[in-house]
Design goal:
This protein is of the alpha/beta class. The chain is built from eleven helices and 13 strands. The protein binds acetyl coenzyme *A. The site of acetyl coenzyme *A has 23 residues, from helix 2, helix 6, helix 8 and strand 12.
Amino acid sequence: MLFSRITGTGGYLPERVMTNAELETMVDTSDAWITARSGIKERRIAAEDEYTCDLAEKASLKAIQAAGKTCDEIDLIVVATSTPDVVFPSTACLLQERLGVIGPPAFDVQAVCAGFLFAVDVADKFIRTQSAKCALVVGAETFSRILDWSDRQTCVLFGDGAGAVILEPGDEPGILSTHLHSDGRFKDLLCVPTGVSRNYQKLQDGGAYVTMEGGEVFRWAVTAMSDIVKETLNANSMTLDQVDWLVPHQANSRIISAIGKRLGLSESKVIITVEKHGNTSAASVPLALDEGVRDSRIKPGNFVLIEGFGGGFTWGSAMIKM
Ligand code: ACO
C-alpha cells in the first residue's frame, strides 16, 4: 500500500509586527483584554504591496528546500486560502508561475481556517492514487485585508502568514488518516457576507469584512475540535497517550485550553503559536507544524495530530507519523 509522507515543512510571516499596544491606539481595547480573552500578544501584518502569493512563495521555498527537492520536481500544488490575491486565477496558479512549475495541476481550496486540512486530504489522495509524486500543499492568508479595523471584536484576533509542506509517497505512513466535515447551517456565524456574485458593490466600495458571533463560534470550535480528535484516534485504534503532539488551529488559547481539558491532554503536548501569530486562518496549522519541526520538538517518528476549524462551519484533522 502507498502512503504519503511529509518530507519538508516551511513557514513565513510578514516582517511587520502589530502588538496589542498598537491596537490600543486604534480601537477601544487593552492588552489585558486581548491577552485574557485570546492569548494573543502580537500578530504579523503584510505590507501594502505584499500579497497572499508572496507569503505562499516564501513558505513554499523553505518547504521545498527542507525536503531536498527542486521546483521542477513538484507535480501538484494545492493552496488553501480565503484571501486569494485576485478572484481568478487561483493563488495556486500564481504560485506555480512564480516557482516555474509548468504543467502540473495547481488549484485553491477554500475552507477558511480548516483549509489546510482540506488541502492535505486532497493532496494525500493524489499521492495514494499515484496521481502525484511530489505535492506542494500550502496554507496562506492575508486576513488583515478583510478585517474591519474599527471593529474591536474581530480585528484583534487575526494575523497574516503562510505555511507549507511537501508530500511524497512512501511504503509506510506518513499520513495514517484524514477526516473532514462541513455544516453549512452555520454559514452566518462566521463569514464575510460580501462577494463577487452577491453584494459586489460592497466589495468594490471596500466593505468586505469578517463578521463573527464569537461566543457561538467558541462553543462549536471546542466541541468539533475535541470530537474530531476522538474520531481520529478511533480510526487508527490509538489512544491519546500515543500521540506525541497535537497541532490545533491557532484561533485562541482559550479554545486550545478547553480542548485540552475536555480530552485530558497536557498542554506540554500541544504546539501553540497563537500568542505571536494571532489567528492566521488556513496558515495557522502549517505554521505551527513548521515551528515544532524547526525547533526540534517534533521529531522523526513522532505521531502528530493536526486539526482545524473554520467558517462554514468546516473542520478536519489528520494523523501523521513524521
Ligand atoms: N477589547 C475590549 N473589549 C472587548 C473587545 C476588545 N477587543 N471585544 C469585545 N469586547 C467587549 C464586548 O463588547 C463585551 O462588552 P459588554 O460586556 O460591555 O457587552 C465584553 O468585551 C465581552 O464580550 P464577549 O464577546 O462576551 O467576550 P468573550 O469572552 O466571549 O470573548 C471572543 C470574545 C474572544 C471573540 C471569544 O468569543 C472567542 O474567542 N470566540 C471564538 C472566536 C474565534 O476565535 N474566532 C476566530 C475565527 S474561528 C476560528 O478560527 C475557530
